[in-house]
Amino acid sequence: MPLHLQAENLLRTIIKDPQYAEGKFLPNEVQLAKQLAISRSTLRQALNKLVYEGLLIRKKGIGTKVAEPAISSKSKNWLSFTQEMTARGISIKNFELHVTWTIPDETVANFFDISMTKKVLKLERLRGKAEGPFVYFISYFHPRVGLTGDEDFKRPLYDILETDHMVTATLSKEEISAKAADKFIAAKLEVEPGTPLLVRKRFVYDQGERPIEYNIGYYRSDSFVYTVESRRE
Predict the structure, then answer these.
(1) Measured between alpha carbons, how far is 186 from 52 in angstroms, rounded to an integer?
(2) Which residues does 224 contact at the CB level (< 8 Å), separation at least 6?
(3) Quick one: which of 99, 85, 92 has its CA closest to 133?
(4) Residue 138, CB half-sphere, CA atoms under 13 Å: how many?
(5) Among candidate residues 13, 89, 81, 4, the one with its CA nearest the CA of residue 40
(6) What is the mean pLDDT of the chain?
(7) How far from 207 is each of 12, 72, 194, CA to CA, in Å?
(8) Residue 195 in this model has a pLDDT that exceeds 80
(9) Residue 27 carries which DSSP code?
């Protein structure tokens, strides 16, 4: 195995040490190269690879430390947010949960193909890990699905639809974009106004490909990674 790959593997082991996982800086390059018995150029090559992968953060004039793991979502595995995070072993906390009946704007009304005078259920949830929130969801539901607003929305959303209302979500179409946080979203996600956010719009359909949910998620870009997996047949 090439020396720089051996160095990579050693670094991957080192950064799993609890003292570094908790944010302590690694030894400087001179000390680390001596510890691993390799040249600084080989060490730097290995460090660059781990920085590129997002495992390490290098701060000029300060040092290198382990990056806080980012939450990752894959487009291939479509589940409710709760189900997806549970499958990854991540415990999710609800910081806020609001349910209201509202008049839809033109975009939502057109998606549902309903009148703008017909109220729809709006569900807003601020969610994240115990340390703090990283996503703010806004969902609108077609009146046809039968949600009343009295449901326990701490349960997985698509379980509620399927178990309580006999509505199965089978198709999701998504749009991913970037947006600067306005004052409202910035306050929710505890970032400065103007901070770049990842915005995911999800259009959800039932078995008959009828629209049932219009969802917008605003994610902190420093805490969330969205990956797309494609396979050539």
Answers:
(1) 27
(2) 70, 71, 72, 73, 134, 135, 198
(3) 92
(4) 13
(5) 4
(6) 84
(7) 45, 27, 39
(8) yes
(9) P
